[in-house]
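Methods — Computational structure assignment.
A single polypeptide chain was analysed. Its primary sequence is given first, followed by the predicted tertiary structure written as structure tokens.
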Amino acid sequence: MRMIARVGIGVLSVAWLSCAHSTPAPVAVPVEKPSEIHYGQEGLQGVVWMRTAVEYQASARQAYAAAQRALDLALADPAWSAVTELTAVASGERRPAIILDLDETCLDNSAYQARLTELAAAHTEEAFEEHIRSGNVTAVPGTVEFLHYAESRGVTIFYVTNQRKKIEEASRANLRRLGLPLPESEDTVLTLGEMPDWVSDKSSRRAFVAQKYRVLLLVGDDFNDFVSANGKSLAERKAIFDRHADWFGTKWIILPNPTYGSWERAALGGAGSSAEDRFKARMRAIQSTAGH
């Protein structure tokens, strides 16, 4: 998933009160805006985690290990289908396929996120496309091994990405360089705008694949890689999640991405573009989770 611009950060201070006979309770202290708020700053913690933490590598490898186990179960069950776009049960005679997102699912672009932070710069499509063309991307841990296993089981691998068509060849070059399966006989990289109805909502592309294949797994780093949730509020997203919660870890495998995504847009709730507006929106999102 790749469609976000961001600004601002805040620090929430919490004072802890204690007494001899009760559990310490957090008390919120009024928040002061930092003296300087700039683009990229709010994502610093997530970028550091993705760039340095073995916990990130472990989370990604764990996700792909779960994907391999789920794939084995799916191949053994002719009624198994991972897409919600088609209501009819897929025929067991259809060839098996899986659908993956590219950015932060197969391709690790944390170098790009780190550069934005270093420059205090906002994400733009032009800057991101330059990054993709540079080839400064790596494979998300566990991706290569899992996809070669899937290929060995006769599974066709589709990459459904919101990268734009004009950088598809650059992305294909990155996939080949990193050793990810990419057949020459069929277009398996489905980009934004490649067909008239292939908009940022990936539903039409999932349906396109499901018309010819039995889709066994969806793998992504954003909620919209699995269902249509564009423009939904936090409450609406939670309701959709609750209806499909048991699909995660079985038919749907999600990768960690704390740096950007539709979760951020939902949390901001249409906040203005100024640093102060977006900072306040983030604080409201935190406060709305009191008691969770």
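Note: Residues 54-75 form the longest helix (22 residues).
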